[in-house]
Write a structure and sequence with these properties.
Strand order of the largest sheet: 11-10-16-7-8-15-12-13
Number of strands: 31
Number of domains: 5
CATH class of the largest domain: Alpha Beta
CATH topology of the largest domain: Rossmann fold
Number of helices: 14
Largest sheet: 8 strands, antiparallel
Shape: globular
């Protein structure tokens, strides 16, 4: 790589709502700048995971360095950090934006401004980034460029008169976007001294080389052989290699002020790397660390356990390596009577849980099961002391509880006005309170709701998409804790409580939820040689029950003719055997049952 003056470096991110064409625009940029050869080009080239390709979403932030010869004849170094669009991956977006000076705001010209676009723009504005509006999919017949420009100006407050109209699929307007980035996004700021300051914005575990750290150099430079100090863990390492993403990792002699790249330093312990940490020189360190990222609080908790208890060590390694690559994941070790040793993990949402579960299974080849997701409840005891719990197993005796407080969130839902009634019905079903409704234009409205968090973490996004024919979008933020009638719903299989199926629910939903789980379990638990009752209980009260019928065995098949007492004797013997079996028999619950309960609709 050539030496670049700081004035010719541009660090930018792409922010947008899910499915507005971020990855396709990135593909066209890589083609135009000849970063990737035509023969190696494929769709969504920055989405390296199979999961990202299958679902058509970006999960991880992917950096890439492009060299572009502008219309002014100069060559510029453009560092793009691609970002996810789904509400559950906001933390990835915030980390990417911390390493940039500017952001492309991509808006679908057929759909207009969506909820997640607004949320991500506010993240960028908090960091004082220069925002360049881009209207994608202008070649489609439904595109309304002038209307979308008006929306950007009215709702976001950005000047959209010079917004670039493009079509990523057709390759129209990509060069104009690059020119706008050079013109509007400022170069990296000069530092007050030459001391090394590098911001760790991501990391990855490589089986052969240990931890690879993704860095943005804020000041100074770093090269092979440098001795570095990680300020959060106070550990020192010798740098073995530095490089850039092109988009594969390409080693370079050094990384200068303003550049984005990676470094390998023989870091074996995953726990030594903290996302948001500052790297400085061991001999000449800086006194104050760079401002890191906001500490993320997980909102959804679930237990992850190995199917085979002997795989616990493998699962532990897998989760810690995944946590290195996904620092929003919160992990604590726990044990369950039904499932053995496992981990209690905190996630930013249900999609985050699902993706993490899939990644453990695929990337680390460990068979795991998860418990039903729950949120953090605040319990005020009779002596006015408070405890916070996210696991139904830790729910105290109801006689000790004064009241339970549950987390509520503020949600902004954008929908076409025709679907207002359907969304209000969904809001009522989810115990929501409609605070206000605002008209965006002749076709769309914004509804501001207050919801209990445990109502929207499971299937709210799916149901919103269903009732609005895919046009609805929403974004939420934590608001406050409020008193709620929360109780523990216990599921018993063959009279034994199974803590993995137990959950904390609102009293009004307990019976419906219990019935749904019992019906699901009857379908997925294999029949035994004795009848198996499945019950949903609140304290000592059974609110739902299903029974798995016994497998019938014809013990009198060998009797032909003769006295009826022979058959009666055999039936009595079988009855005693079944009674004894029921007392000592164990019901094995298959992995599919745990997944079925996760998907049991209320």
């Amino acid at each position: 790589m050539k030496e670049y003056q700081r004035e010719r470096i541009r660090n930018f991110s792409i922010i947008a709502h899910i499915d507005h064409g971020k990855s396709t625009i990135a593909d066209r940029m890589l083609e135009l700048t000849c970063t990737i050869e035509k023969r190696l080009m494929q769709e969504q080239v920055l989405d390296a995971m199979d999961l990202e390709r299958e679902r058509g979403i970006t999960i991880k932030a992917h950096p890439v360095t492009m060299l572009y010869k502008a219309r002014d004849g100069k060559e510029y170094c453009l560092n793009l950090i691609d970002t996810p669009g789904h509400v559950d991956f906001t933390y990835e977006v915030s980390r990417s934006l911390s390493a940039c000076e500017g952001a492309l705001l991509v808006v679908d010209a057929t759909q207009g401004v969506q909820a997640q676009s607004l949320a991500n723009v506010y993240l960028a504005l908090e960091r004082n980034l220069e925002i360049v509006p881009v209207l994608n999919k202008v070649d489609l017949p439904a595109a309304d460029v002038e209307e979308v420009k008006r929306q950007i100006q009215d709702y976001i407050g950005l000047d959209a008169t010079h917004a670039v109209a493009c079509s990523a699929k057709m390759g129209i307007g990509i060069e104009d976007i690059l020119e706008q980035i050079i013109a509007l996004v400022p170069p990296p700021r000069a530092s007050e001294d030459e001391k090394l300051r590098a911001l760790v914005f991501d990391s990855q575990y490589d089986t052969y080389r240990g931890v690879m750290i993704y860095v943005r150099i804020i000041s100074g430079s770093i090269r092979k052989g440098s001795k570095i100090l990680m300020m959060a863990s106070n550990t020192t390492y010798d740098v073995l290699e530095v490089g850039i993403f092109s988009p594969q990792k390409v080693p370079v002699p050094d990384l200068q002020c303003g550049e984005v790249g990676y470094l390998v330093a023989n870091i074996k312990k995953v726990s030594d790397v903290k996302i948001g940490d500052t790297i400085t020189e061991d001999k000449n360190p800086v006194l104050k660390a760079l401002p890191g990222f906001k500490e993320i609080r997980p909102v959804v908790f679930a237990g992850i356990y190995p199917v085979d208890s002997s795989d616990f060590e493998l699962l532990r390694d897998a989760i810690y390596k995944l946590q290195l690559n996904d620092s929003a994941l919160h992990v604590e070790q726990e044990s369950s009577t039904a499932l053995g040793f496992g981990f209690r993990c905190g996630f930013l949402g249900l999609l985050h849980l699902e993706i993490s579960f899939e990644r453990i299974t695929r990337e680390f080849d460990v068979d795991v099961i998860t418990t039903a997701p729950s949120v953090v409840y605040r319990i005020v005891l009779g002596d006015k002391s408070q405890i916070e719990i996210d696991n139904p197993a830790h729910f105290p005796d109801p006689t000790l509880i004064d009241h339970v407080e549950e987390p509520w969130v503020l949600a902004h839902i954008m929908v076409p006005s025709d679907y207002m009634g359907a969304v209000m019905n969904l809001g009522m079903e989810k115990r929501g309170e409609c605070l206000k409704t605002e008209t965006l234009d002749s076709r769309r409205i914004v509804m501001t709701y207050r919801f209990p968090l445990n109502e929207i973490i499971t299937d709210f996004n799916d149901k919103l998409k269903s009732v609005t024919s895919g046009y609805g979008s929403f974004d939420y933020e934590f608001e406050l804790y409020r008193k709620g009638d929360i109780i523990k719903l216990e599921i018993r299989v063959n009279e034994e409580p199974v803590d993995a199926f137990s959950s904390l629910v609102h009293r009004s939903k307990a019976e419906g939820r219990g019935r749904a789980i019992c019906q699901k379990l009857v379908e997925v638990i294999p029949r035994q040689l004795f009848r198996v009752p499945i019950q949903a209980a609140i304290g000592g009260k059974i609110v739902a029950r299903e029974t798995i019928a016994a497998l019938s065995k014809n013990v009198t098949a060998k009797c032909y003719g003769g006295d009826i007492t022979r058959k009666r004797k055999l039936w009595e013997k079988q009855k005693k055997g079944k009674k004894r079996m029921k007392e000592i028999g164990k019901v094995s619950i298959p992995q599919s049952a745990f997944m079925a309960v996760l998907k049991a609709n209320e």
